[in-house]
Amino acid sequence: MPNHASRRTLLTVAAVAAVTAAGAASAAVGTARDPDGPVPDDSRPGDRAPGRSPAPRVRPRETMERMSLAELVGQLFVSRAYGHAATEPDSEDVALNQKAFGVRTPAELVARYHLGGIVYFGWAHNTRSPRQVAELSAGLQRAAADSGAGVPLLLSIDQEHGAVARVGRPATLLPGAMALGALALGTAGSTAEARRAARIAGSELAAMGIRHNYAPVADVNVDPANPVIGVRSFGADPQAVAALVAAQVRGYQGAGVAATAKHFPGHGDTGTDSHVGLPLMTHTRARWEELDEPPFRAAVEAGVDVVMTAHIVFPALDPSGDPATLSRPIVTGILRERLGFRGVVVTDALDMAGVRQKYGDDRVPVLALKAGCDQLLNPPDLGLAVRSVLAAVESGELTRARIEESVLRILELKARRGLFDAAARAVEPARAADAVDAAVGIPAHLAAAGEIADRTTTLLANPVGLLPLDPADRPLLLVTGTDPVSPTGTTGPPTAVLARELSALGCRATALPPARAVAAAPGNAAVLVCTYNVPEGESPQRELVTELLATGVPVVLVAIRNPYDPARLPACAAELATYTWTDVELRAAARVVTGTVRPVGRLPVPVPGRYPLGHGLAYG
After folding, report:
1. Mapping DSSP to helix (H, G, I), strand (E, B) and coil, where does residue 475 land?
2. How far is CA 320 from CA 186, 323, 328, 358, in A?
3. How far is CA 583 from the centre of its chain?
4. Most-buried pick from 94, 272, 331, 550 (CB within 10 A)?
5. Active site positions, annotated
6. How many CA atoms lie less than 13 Å away from 518 in the CB half-sphere?
7. Is the pLDDT of residue 31 over 80?
8. Residue 55 per-residue DSSP state
9. Is 248:200 a contact under the CB 8 Å cutoff?
10. Distance between CA atoms of 249 and 259, rounded to whole angstroms?
11. Mean pLDDT to the nearest integer, 353-366
């Protein structure tokens, strides 16, 4: 067992300075003006992160051989933990940890189960602010260093940006995948800004101690009614999606953060949300090879560290009826053998209904390992899951060699992302927060996010030339519509953000709720109505747009999430798609409305019955 006391002697000022310098270096990488220029090659094995001095050579196999079976099995699990701090969570989080895990604190959870990783969630109260996240990360790494084999944690998060983000302001919030797909189509297929966005996002995550992001989404969204992917996908064209996935893999990993291509073998044509049910994919094998395979193949060729499985049944790839997460023909036969992937395979969350319908929670972790998965993400009952894997080894259903195979991949990934570097792990929480200030939400990143967003907004319709509105005329504008909660809980509401930005640009804009909007519409130069995932048939959103049109005031439709909304609504005087309802996208939409910037984005998906893939208008 490692000498933890001697490890703690590495907590020197020099070590802290190395971490701060690494955060600043990552920030500089993220804001480089030439995002397709030379970057550190973090796609290949090694044990240093960009911006760092070479670390002492870590030998993952030797580390693994010193570990007990319990320590090996612990490395396979990535669990939630409740609380904002490693050792002093709030009382309500103490109660949640005791109920779920039989421990009081996240640090105790790491020690009890020898965990390989922790995943951060807002609902688990992990993500109050970037500084707090950095302090939590440092505290958890200290807990890992002081327990068991002393192996560092791989701390992970869903920070896709756009519709899925866990850390909000003052971190930089960037356009999401479909917005970047719109930008790429509008700039002759360039992937430079997608890579730039990933490098910025990665550098900020690294400064918070998070070295594994569950992004990018590699699913090709071809079903407008897809309830779980939608704008999280780059689009409907497999080759365009493949190029953007590869760009973001290189961007994240160039910033020292493991990227994850998800959800294998492809979740873009499903009508069921795998969080609540078990989707059935009806593609033929030939259709899968044409549509779903290219982005994952591109990710593997780009050197992606991790691939996440999907909880979907895909009979053309495996007729057993098992979800892909538990399918050896899919995970081992296709991902490992056909695509040649040699990195870490992580399951999608094991508390999702899609993976729990056929087997019990005791069997799912064992079957996932037998299928070829390496990391077991957020089982609903961690204690049961760990005991089940240990029992499977004791019974011979799983061999120690099979466990070591996955653990070695995990340890190699940790080494490749610099986690065995003492300076990266041994920083005091207060100093970790200082590194955040040098890299997270800095002016250069915020400016870059705005520049990227300016080229994502898509002008879908402008038949009478209503747009752009001239702010010099001081037009009176009304903004109304749907106000969904921000993905991070730290921005919005969308109608208020849009109205404020329009006013800042010179217009006289007021935001009102739908119940008051129709009566207030007359006398305005235009009404901007924000829509969000309009369903087929009659709905309150359709009723609102119809009533606003009846006032005779020009209506500007702003689809703030799925761009399919116009097909489900009456035609308006102008129609735009923003793909995301966070502040950065809504401010960009206001700049397009006023002509401060010209619309560049092009639809990365077709809008059935209205607009083809690639459609987008420009101002004359």
Report:
1. coil
2. 43, 9, 10, 11
3. 17
4. 331
5. 275, 348
6. 13
7. no
8. P
9. no
10. 6
11. 92
Q: Is the pLDDT confidence value at 364 over 50?
A: yes
Cα separations (Å) of 322 from 3, 357, 364, 485?
Answer: 44, 10, 11, 35
pTM of the predicted protein model: 0.91
Cβ atoms < 10 Å from Cβ of 128: 16
Measured from the Cβ of residue 401, the count of other Cβ atoms closer than 10 Å reads 7
**Whose CA is closest to 177, among 123, 266, 240, 119?**
240
Q: What is the pLDDT of residues 455-466, one digit of tens each?
A: 999 999 999 999
Q: What is the token pair recorded at 373?
A: 């998965």
Give the whole-angstrom CA distance, residue 355 versus residue 273.
12
Name the residue among 536, 526, 517 with its Cα closest to residue 576: 526
- Tokens encoding 57: 């050579």
Cβ neighbours of residue 427 under 8 Å, at least 6 residues apart? 11, 15, 16, 19, 138, 435
**Residue 504 clears pLDDT 60, i.e. is over it:** yes
Closest CA relative to residue 471, chosen from 576, 574, 600, 593: 593
Angle in degrees, CA 520, 522, 523, rounded to 5 = 110
Output the CA–CA distances (angstroms, integers) from residue 560 to 179, 449, 531, in the order listed. 11, 17, 6
Q: What is the distance between the alpha carbons of residues 444 and 539, in angstroms, rounded to a whole number?
A: 42
Using the structure block, give the residue that is written with the tokens 């907590």: 11
**Hey, is 98 helix, strand or coil?**
helix
Side chain identity at residue 565, one-letter code: D
Cβ atoms 25, 439 nearer than 8 A: no
- Ramachandran bin of 276, using left for φ above 0, alpha for ψ from -120 to 50, beta for the remaining angles: alpha
Distance CA 294, CA 301 (A): 10
Q: CA 336, 301, 330 angle in degrees (round to 5)?
A: 25
Cα-Cα-Cα-Cα dihedral of 233, 238, 244, 249, to 10°? 90
Q: What is the mean pLDDT of residues 283-306?
A: 97
Single-letter amino acid, residue 165: A
Terminal-residue alpha carbon distance, the chain: 71
Q: Is there a contact between 35 and 24 (Cβ–Cβ < 8 Å)? A: no
As a 3-state breakdown, the chain gives helix, strand, coil percent values, each rounded to 5, of 45, 10, 45
Are 348 and 363 within 8 A, CB to CB?
Answer: no
Beta-carbon neighbour count of residue 315 at 10 Å? Answer: 14
Handedness of CA 75, 80, 81, 85 (dihedral sign): positive
Closest CA to 458 of 528, 538, 562, 373: 562
DSSP structure string for 114-163: T-SEEEE-TTTT--S-HHHHHHHHHHHHHHHHTSTT-PPPEEEE---BTT
Residue 4 predicted with pLDDT over 60: no
In this structure, which amino acid lies at residue 431? R
* 571 contacts: CB under 8 Å, gap ≥ 6: 461, 463
Query: DSSP of 399-411, one letter per residue?
Result: -HHHHHHHHHHHH
Measuring CA to CA, which residue among 113, 141, 45 is closest to residue 408? Answer: 45
Q: Which two tokens stand for residue 519?
A: 């009566």
pLDDT tens across 67-117, in order?
999 999 999 999 999 999 999 999 999 999 999 999 999 999 999 999 999
